[in-house]
Write a structure and sequence with these properties.
Length: about 500
């Protein structure tokens, strides 16, 4: 029997989903064959996570949808029914329980792990699963809340591997990961497909699509296009399918001249760093930091933001010594810090876009403790427009926005303090290609206007394309610091990915 005659592993037809006035999905058709990797692509808000949630039984489609698995109608109207039907999902937001240990999280809700398993059995189970995602160095008794964003993401994948699923869905599994960890994830996906399982893979990183996908389905404004073989497409064609136009240049032109130092860091010492760090950011210069998990980039950003009380060294802004005793002092001195972790970043899902955007400066604009909502909304509006946030939804709670749009709110929020220094981790995490180009343009404009910008990113393509000066880190040490012109992109990838093998430890 050839492929065409076999029933689809999964076939969804006429799926719609309405949230009040918002049509998240309109009559979507989605098909998946046995043993294939299907990339699911589309702009922020296109409906990718919504269909993923329908397949995983977390969201119910409006009436009229039909869902079949292996040719037979399937009831996946709850998460447990979906799991019973052989479907497992790595969600875009984590579902691990922070206060529990890694070992406990790895058996949470898992049918294969009976409640009578003792501590040793739990540990062994955890060790095996952690090794499959490259986290063998972690102690299974660590509380999950102590992990970094990247570690949590890999743990989430380990959780899913514990299930013997025939359909495995990844919703942006690599958004917070660096190249070395991404390679792990892609290997996991290839193994799953080789075992005959079907994989649905949602991502904004198109390079990954060409590495692992057999076919792609593109969503646009809640509608699905016919799936296409990846072999018949190139990157520009995929982008055009997603955003309905050619993209042009992703990265803005670099500034003609780099000026005087704005931010000078000398002999910085902080927990997580094994050597002192020196860094200078000059006018018109964007400095990029990159490295693998645990490289120290996050420690530097947190220290410069004023989040590390045990600090050594000197930091000067326009020649003045800055006081980084705590985050409040940092903000007062004009240091904006947009962390990779949206939740830690103070993005509150339950409140409106306007209030999220205004939260860093709202107290300062109040007169005698009274906030002017008109001024608040005018100002929030300005920042929303700069970051391509849908201005019709300013009063919606941020939790109802798609993942990429939440990231735009996180970034837009910090513009409000009119920063002198902008520290950004993973600036385009989960952001679609079109909006990404827009964010890069904004960062370049701010830098040209004299804001000292440090970007830390696990995406080497972004670091290479955007930054004027690039520093790499490995296990708490700075390993390189040079102008971008002295790098090639393959050099940078090699430096970040293969550090382990070449240097050893
Ligand atoms: N609970 C909800 N209430 C209201 N609107 C919602 C809700 N969940 C999703 N939406 C809306 O449905 C649309 C589709 O969102 P979805 O999360 O599926 O997008 P996505 O393609 O996954 O985007 P991204 O790439 O940013 O993750 C968006 O407009 C989103 O704001
Ligand atoms: Mg999504």
């Amino acid at each position: 029997m050839n492929e065409a005659q076999q029933p689809f592993r999964l076939l969804i037809e006429n799926a719609s989903k309405t949230y009040g006035a918002i049509k998240a999905l309109s009559d979507v058709r989605f098909e998946l064959r046995a043993g294939e990797v299907m990339a699911l692509l589309g702009e922020n808000g296109a409906g990718k996570s919504t269909i993923v949630k329908i397949i995983s039984g977390l969201v119910r489609p409006d009436s009229g949808a039909s869902i079949a698995i292996d040719g037979a109608p399937a009831d996946i109207s709850s998460n447990s029914l979906s799991q019973a039907a052989g479907i497992a999902v790595v969600q875009q937001e984590y579902s691990t329980v922070g206060t529990m240990t890694i070992a406990e999280n790895l058996v949470l809700g898992q049918a294969h792990a009976p409640f009578w398993w003792g501590k040793r059995r739990l540990r062994e189970n955890a060790e095996t699963l952690l090794a499959r995602v490259g986290l063998e160095d972690l102690d299974p008794d660590t509380a999950v809340e102590e992990l970094s964003v990247a570690e949590m993401q890999l743990l989430e994948i380990a959780r899913v591997l514990a299930r013997d699923a025939k359909i495995v869905i990844f919703d942006e599994p690599t958004a917070a990961l660096s190249d070395a960890e991404i390679a792990r994830v892609l290997d996991v996906v290839k193994t799953l497909a080789a075992e005959g399982r079907s994989v649905i893979y949602v991502t904004h990183r198109l390079g990954e699509v060409f590495e692992i996908a057999d076919r792609v389905t593109v969503f646009r404004n809640g509608r699905s296009a016919e799936p296409e073989d990846i072999d018949s497409l190139d990157v520009d064609q995929v982008i055009a399918l997603m955003i309905g136009r050619q993209l042009g240049h992703m990265y803005p032109e670099r500034s003609a001249g780099i000026g005087d130092p704005v931010l000078e860091v000398e002999g910085l010492r902080a927990p997580g760093l094994r050597d002192d760090v020196d860094l200078t950011v000059r006018r018109g210069e964007i400095v990029g930091l990159t490295g693998q998990l645990g490289s120290g980039t996050q420690a530097i950003m947190e220290a410069l933001a004023g989040m590390q009380p045990r600090l050594g060294g000197e930091v000067r802004l326009q020649g003045r010594l800055v006081d980084l005793r705590n985050r409040t002092r940092g903000i007062e001195q004009g240091i904006a810090y947009c962390s990779a972790d949206r939740k830690r970043n103070g993005i509150f899902g339950g409140i409106s876009i306007t209030r999220n955007l205004s939260s860093p400066w709202l107290p300062a604009t109040a007169r005698l403790g009274v906030v002017s909502t008109r001024r608040e909304s005018e100002r929030a509006h300005t920042y929303a427009e700069q970051f391509a946030i849908d201005i019709r939804r300013m009063q919606s709670s941020v939790g109802t926005l798609s993942g990429g749009n939440q990231q735009k709110v996180a970034l837009g929020k910090w513009l409000g303090i009119e920063p002198e220094v902008l520290l950004v981790e993973e600036p385009t995490r989960g952001v679609d290609v079109g909006a990404r180009a827009e964010i890069y343009r904004q960062l370049r404009e701010l830098s040209d206007a004299g804001v000292a910008i440090i970007v830390s990113s696990s995406d080497t393509n972004e670091i290479f394309g955007l930054c004027d000066t690039i520093a790499t880190y490995y296990k708490g040490r700075q390993t390189n610091l040079r102008p971008w012109t002295e790098w090639t992109e393959p050099d940078l990838v090699r430096e970040v990915m293969h550090r382990k093998e070449t240097v050893g430890e």
